[in-house]
Amino acid sequence: MLDAKYFGEAVSELEAALKRRNGDSQLVAHIAELSKLRRTLISQTDSLKAKRNQASQEIGQLKAKAKSDPAAAAEAERRMVETRSLGDEIKATDQRLAEVDAEFTDLGLRIPNIPQASVPSGAGAEENVEVRRWGTPRAFDFEPLDHVALGEKLRVLDFDRAGKLSGARFSVYFGAGATLERALIQFMLDLHTRQHGYQEVIPPFMVNRASMTGTGQLPKFEEDLFKTGTADRELFLIPTSEVPLTNLFRDEIVEPGRLPLYLTAYSPCFRSEAGSYGKDTRGLIRQHQFQKVELVKIVEPEHSNEELEKMTAHAERVLQLLGLPYRTMLLCTGDMGFSAAKTYDIEVWLPAQKAYREISSCSNCEDFQARRAQIRYRPEAQAKPRLAHTLNGSGLAVGRTFIAILENYQDAQGRVEIPEVLHRYVEGAPGFLRDGARIWMTP
RNA sequence: GGAGAGAUGGCAGAGUGGUCGAAUGCGCCGGUUUUGAAAACCGGAGUGGGGGCAACCCCACCGGGGGUUCGAAUCCCUCUCUCUCCGCCA
Length: 443
What we know:
A hairpin with a 2-residue loop joins β18 (432-435) and β19. Helix content is 41%, strand content 21%.
């Protein structure tokens, strides 16, 4: 995988990608130049090799005759010596080609996906466009606490002890907190597998470099990842289960009739959060380790946009069932992730911050990841394989959903009501009190 | 952790230095036969890149990478993965 040839045909697209996303015209020119040089070198080595191959074949024929014909043996010797220099020439040209290929591939891997035409141009989050809003933020007749204060009061979150164990940006959930987090995971997985048609997967939480490259985390964002492994083996902790789920079909040709593939997985996610110093340092919002239920689709190109709408609706459904107000934003070019061609962020209302905060991000990556990971499908028997389109979305970030429930469902005494859809998951667990038709987490 | 055996086309499975891109079987596609089908028989067929109006031609690919050689599926090094036996382990 990840051969320069995969980018060969995509050069003009790569140029377009750069232009629309703060493009660097020098880089574009450089890429075009490299591409040309690559083609020249390829045709050079090819014709040298053709000559060499023919000579070898003729030497073989001479050798076969040599038993009965001493003149043929001498001729074979002569040709062998003569052909030696051709070999050196091939070696030199091949090496130059390898260098050009390496640079070309590396550049190709560092260029982001092209935004779709429907994506608004913009520099940053301020220029994202709100496409819809659901629910009305509740009016409080007291000053709502944030989830950190609530969590400590309820004794379900402990950041100090997490600091002792691992340092900043880690957390410990205790008792009813741990149960609620687990209930949310279960609820989301049940919803997506039973009502939305996703297949549940438990993937590896550590993956190799090829997988990280396939989905676009590498080579450009290595500092965002936790790297591990043993002396002779390199592994990365997944920043999202999008990585293992999408890479499941890396280097495969999916047989006719199997698309669309709908996959969902719960996983812990590990992010170094390099470059976010000072941002969201309080509480659960931005952690080195958090839980997420992920949605991934592998689909035919013709349907990817309609599948993106459906996937976004599936993620929104979680918030609707939990009764949490949210808005959905169409990200502008400047705020989109590296691999995405179009992205919707879903933002949940957090009363303590009096703001909508991201809780899900749903993207159509089109063939960007499929090209890197060589995920192809056969439209019908005997047909030529085509690159598939891949999509991913959070369905949802569990920790942030936990925050939203604490903050939106608190009462003046610091109790938190549990939304009805979660009752069956927490009923009877320690730390939850039933009061008529309602269940509460209480201090 | 120790010892050993492997990785070849959709699958099974030959091939240990010279027309091997690769025998054979199954499967697949086309045809003959048949009312239709099966069987039988005949024929075809890998992937990617480049060139040519075209018939065709060239390059690469036998797990990945490197080496030896005029020439490598075949020899050497290395990595990955799989299997068997022993040890350990949730």
